[in-house]
Input
Amino acid sequence: MIELMVIFLVVGGLWLVGLVFKLTFGLIGGLFSLFAGALGIVIGGLVMLLVLPLIALSLLPVMLPALLLFGLIWTIVHLARKPSVAPVPH
Output
């Protein structure tokens, strides 16, 4: 009976030590994961700041007809509007 109690105490102690290690490494791993995610977002944002203007310039020939049509429609609507009348003070 004493041997069985000693085995349970040893297994329980090892289980508690394993639980502490698991909790500690889980928290540390979570912090590293958050830090790596934030660093990835920052690096991704910097890369997008460099790449997006190049992509916009490379797509300009494709988008040029649509941009010209939009500019023509905007010009017609802008010129067709009558200037607003300034309110007359009483």
Remarks:
- The CA atoms of residues 30 and 36 lie 10 Å apart.
